[in-house]
Amino acid sequence: MKKFSMLLACAAAFALPVVASAQDAAGTTKKESYRFVVVPKVVHPWFDKVNEGAQAAAAAIKAQTGSSVEVVYSAPQSADVVQQNQIIDSALATQPDGLALDLLDPSGNRASLEEAQNQNVPLVIFDSIPPEGMAIPYIGSDFCEQAKIAARRLVEVLGGEGEVAIMQGVPTAPNHSIRAECHRQVFAEHKGIKVVAEGIDNDSIETAQQQAAAIMQANPNLKGWVASDAAGPIGIGQAIVEAGKQGKVTLVGLDNLPEMLDMIRDGVADSSSASQPELQGYWSVMLLWAQATGAKVPGYLDTGNAFLTKENVGG
Amino acid sequence: MQTSPTQTSAVAHLARSPLAGVFIALAVIFTLSALISPYFLTPYNLSVIARGLAFVGLITIAQSMLMVLGELDLSLGVIGGLCGVISGILMVRLGFEPYSAMLLAILLGGCLGLLNGLLVTVLRLHSLVLTIGTAGIFGGANLVLTRGVAITGIPRDVHYLGRGDVLGVPVPFLIMLAALAFATFVMLKTPFGRYMYAIGNNQAGARMLGIKVDKIRLLVFGVAGAIAGLAGVLMVARLGTAQPSIGETWVLAPIAASVIGGVATTGGIGSPIGAIFGAGIIAIIENIIVLFGVSPYWQGIVSGAIVVLAISFDAISRRYLRRDA
């Protein structure tokens, strides 16, 4: 009996390092294939760039590990939280290895996120923040800082004086309303700057163009524009060109859609403060993959903002 | 091959039913989806479809009742959204007991429906045109009240109505079934329902027969509004927040579902059951598009094509069944 106990003790002693190394082996779980689902807010060119980044990450993981990685991009046709939840719930039914989501409304998406957690599906949130009290890794850039970069640039170009206007995006979208508020904060710091009008474009280029045209008609002394969504500056730029005010009205845009870059190249827009959707998509997939391998991931990953001017947007 | 008299009678009965075509189309889409996707028939996925169907289904029931009368109410989705927001305000900001708040919001939905009905009947306005206007007013009121920001902090007591299930069947789906049973009973088994079909077929003729046409139209508008309000407050219970965007996508789908389900836009033909079958087809299409990972840019084409196929299949199968009978 004593011998048996000794053997057992020795076995346990030998097993300890093995157990310990197993515990240390976070991130070593490997699968032959992974399938991740990316659900953005809505069908939109900005999210196409997120998808491009996500697909690039899938290709990178495959090249480095040999595992096949499929990224399924499933976008709601309208920016409606009910429709988005329906897509999330249906995607969960396919038992994916991970879900990357841009939440339309964190509190409204909570029930679907809780269901995903109940099913142990790894989650990553990009371009938005998790619902209060839910520990989900999230990726994004500082929306307020992005807006402040644009507003400060406009103040600088105008020499701290003049009438300006702000184009809001979708009033119910938190990132759009944060940007609009941060524009206001910067302008309020400069006595010479007067915000004479605010438009709402509902993330539509056409609406932005109509609103901007009307606002410039009503405010002939308007000197500058900032926007709160990606569609806004493109519509504003069109309105500036149509009104023949290029060079008289300064536009500091937002984000890096191809039309925005063209307007910077053509001199319609001075510059743009851009979040980096490709990076958000890329790192969303990377964090999902890391979670699927059992690795720990950071709670927040900042992909930063880029300031785009004629000098750095390229030909 | 010879068929027995019982088989012949069953086929004849099926052929006579106006629901035969849409039911077969639904069954075919359901079967194909189950055969193609291994995920489709899982209990979780079926509950996802049922839960999604519940909310649009309620609006579809309301819309199909109005369509039988020859009316259309484009503000039903917006009424649902406004009632959801009002229930949230009553519960969270004004401290009302949650179930009382929901009930009041449903009553408000009924009142807004009555308002639509009153304007249609008294001012002799076209319901389609009028409700484009009232949808703007109700939607605007929603934005004024919320300023576009969701009302959070909905008491957890009511979440069960939106998120809970009974033996795996989502509660909102059961509520939708109850509403469907009520609407079907009223429309197919009561004089009131027969009057609705008479009005839809020939409003002037119905008046000559002594049917209180305007009273019935008014009442149906009111009931439709209340059902829309019910959908809105249930969605608040589902989300746990009162979203100003609730109901934005409940405009065209219920009309499409009703038409797919055999409800004539000119009135007098169809039933809520057919409309719900139509809504079921749309709900399954929305689900399988995600299960199959269809590109978002192809979704419109795919879902549109399936709807066209479903309607065609409905028409062809009806013709075939009639000939066989």
What is the percentage of strand-forming residues of chain B? under 5%
**Major β-sheet of chain A, in short?**
6 strands, parallel
As laid out across the biggest beta sheet of chain B, the strand order is 1-2
For the record, the CATH architecture of chain B stands as Orthogonal Bundle
Strand order of the largest sheet of chain A: 2-1-3-4-5-11
Backbone CA Rg of chain B: 20 Å
- From the N-terminal CA to the C-terminal CA of chain B, the straight-line distance is 15 Å
Mean pLDDT across all residues of chain A, rounded?
Answer: 90
Pattern of helices and strands of chain A = HEHEHEHEEHEHEHEHEHEHEE
| Mean pLDDT across every amino acid position of chain B | 89
Short précis:
Chain A has 315 residues and is α/β, with parallel strands linked by helices. Chain A is 46% helix and 20% strand.
Keywords for this entry:
heterodimer; A: 315 residues; alpha/beta; Rossmann fold; six-stranded parallel beta sheet; six-stranded mixed beta sheet; 10 helices; 12 strands; B: 325 residues; mainly alpha; two-stranded antiparallel ribbon; 14 helices; 2 strands; globular
